[in-house]
Design goal:
Elements (H helix, E strand, L loop, with lengths): L1 E7 L4 H4 L2 E8 L3 H4 L2 H8 L3 H8 L9 E5 L6 E8 L9 H14 L6 E5 L8 H15 L19 E7 L4 H26 L7 H15 L2 E5 L1 H7 L2 H7 L7 E7 L8 E12 L8 H4 L7 H16 L4 E11 L11 E3 L5 E3 L7 H16 L3 E6 L3 H7 L4 E5 L2 H14 L3 E3 L17 E2 L7 H10 L6 E6 L5 E2 L9 E2 L4 H8 L4
Parallel strand pairs: 1-6, 2-4, 2-5, 5-6, 9-10, 9-13, 12-16, 13-17, 14-15
Antiparallel strand pairs: 3-4, 7-8, 8-10, 11-12, 14-17, 18-19
Helix pairs in contact: 5-6, 6-7, 7-12, 10-13, 12-17, 13-16, 15-17
Length: 502
């Protein structure tokens, strides 16, 4: 998909621009104030105003209106896109959503789409360029590897032309657009990995993807098998993976900047490539989407792919403790005691609380072997986070106010909805064990908090944040730039956090 950025020096320019669709976002109130509408209405014989009145179009965010221009404009169709309340300064997330709606509406029919964006401040040219590209590319994403015939749909859109207000730098917008293309590539990689069937996307295959990426982008990569994990004492990771014919893998990617690093950061992604629940087996309904239980691992891989291309002042380590959680005669059992890499012992009272076990060993590796300054883990960890926050919001826990604030700020730009949750020490009582240092599962109430408290036991005094993304890892339907299926949640936030726009 090609992107062209132009400035609108005179309103009349838009009238002759050749396109299959001309899209004009209008806020509530913008229907009366927009300078283009009188020109368009005049050329179309009053049909624009008439359609606005007939359809009661007021610019609400749920509204859109399309008219055929009958050859009286350069564009074949004119679409008015309601965007709700007039934004106070154009925000990256707003433009991303507007573009996604415009492109999705023209998905099959239009080859050349023109988007006219007004009210863009000059200092936001690059951000707007990035948002346009992300909105267009991510909203047209499809995982169609296993589809055939007519179900293998492709968008017809070949070019998106964006008109910006006079004085806004098209060069800066184009530079931002290239960043958007790289970020979108990371998000789509994460979506591909999570959407893939679990027999294909096993620990072995996930390790192969990471190895190939490292070779292409000049990063370091090491993959540890069972023997090496045993030598490191990763009893929790090995315990979880023991029931599967697919052996666990511990994957470590390293990005190093050219200059001396500002700090060392670890990105840890839960990478349970399929979660049956183990001997605490899930129902069919509960197991149906458990190929997505490696969404955290996919997110950190997608993020490091983009970060390596954009550059980053930090040394970044990506860690994936990959395993399948399966029931078998060799599976770990209720009542077993697993010894972690840190030396802490854990009594198993629920084999379906496995993600915190694999993450615990990965967190210990980051602290003891790498000596990182900050750790961020992403995990589809608990159904409790979904009970608390719904399907669209990630739960953020952190022992550092500074790190939590930086992540939340980055998520606003990245378009990943997050909400900070409390770490209540009293809930750790539910993890106390009579025969080990702790149990792996606490009470059902406050389950996402007790899971985060379990993870905190393995980070020592390091600045740490945990993002429980069980809800937003998967979308039930298209919404904005997110498409049905795997969402790629977390990728854009991590990229914005570690490779901020200049």
């Amino acid at each position: 998909m090609k992107f062209t950025f132009c400035t609108l020096e005179r309103p009349e320019q838009i009238l002759t621009e050749k396109a299959d669709a001309l899209v004009i976002p209008l806020s509530e109130g913008g229907v009366r104030e927009d300078v283009l509408l009188p020109l368009l209405d005049g050329l179309l014989g009053g049909s624009v105003r008439q359609a606005i009145e007939d359809e009661q179009f007021t610019g609400k965010v749920t509204q859109s209106l399309t008219l055929h221009t009958l050859g009286k404009l350069g564009a074949t169709r004119l679409s008015l896109l309601g965007i709700g309340s007039k934004p106070s300064g154009v925000l990256l997330a707003d433009v991303r959503t507007w573009t996604a709606r415009a492109v999705r509406g023209a998905f099959v029919k239009a080859k050349r789409l023109v988007l006219c964006l007004g009210g863009v401040p000059a200092d936001q040219a690059a951000a707007v360029g990035q948002a346009v590209v992300e909105g267009a590319l991510l909203s047209t994403y499809q995982f169609d590897k296993y589809l055939s015939g007519e179900r293998k749909r492709r968008t017809a859109i070949e070019e998106v032309v964006v008109f910006l207000p006079s004085g806004v730098s098209t060069e800066a917008a184009a530079i931002g657009g290239e960043r958007g293309r790289i970020v979108s590539g990371g998000v789509m990689l994460a979506r591909d990995l999570v959407n893939e069937q679990p027999t294909e996307m096993c620990p072995r295959r996930l390790a192969a993807v990471a190895t190939q990426m490292a070779e292409q982008l000049g990063m370091g990569c090491s993959v540890l098998g069972v023997k090496e994990c045993e030598e490191l004492g990763m009893g929790m990771l090995l315990g979880v993976g023991r029931g599967s014919l697919e052996e666990p893998r511990f994957i470590h990617l390293t990005y190093r900047p050219k200059a001396p690093p500002r700090r060392k950061v670890a990105l840890v992604g839960k990478s349970v490539t399929f979660d049956s629940g183990g001997l605490s087996i899930k129902t069919t309904e509960g197991m149906l989407w458990m190929k997505m239980d490696m969404g955290g691992g996919a997110a950190v891989l997608g993020a490091i792919q983009a970060i390596a291309q954009l550059g980053c002042p930090d040394e970044v380590h990506v860690l994936l403790a990959a395993a399948e959680n399966m029931p078998s005669g060799n599976a770990y059992k209720l009542g077993d005691v697993l010894r972690s890499m840190s030396g802490k012992t854990v009594e198993i009272n629920n084999t379906d609380a496995e993600g915190r076990l694999t993450l615990g060993d990965a967190l210990t590796y980051a602290v003891e072997k790498l000596g990182v300054d900050e750790i961020i883990d992403l995990a589809t960890l608990t159904g409790s986070s979904m009970v608390a926050l719904g399907n669209h919001t990630g739960a953020l826990f952190s022992n550092s106010d500074s790190l939590a604030t930086r992540i939340l700020d980055a998520s606003q730009v990245g378009g990943d909805d997050m909400w900070r949750m409390p770490l209540r020490d009293r809930l750790f009582d539910s993890l106390k064990s009579d025969i080990a240092d702790m149990k792996n599962s606490g009470d059902r109430y406050g389950g996402s908090i007790s899971a985060a408290l379990f993870l905190r036991e393995f980070v020592g005094d390091k600045s740490w944040a945990h993002i429980d993304m069980a809800g937003p890892v998967h979308a039930e339907k298209d919404f904005g730039h997110v498409t049905k299926g795997a969402s790629g949640f977390g990728v854009a936030t991590l990229v914005e956090l570690l490779s901020p726009r200049q």
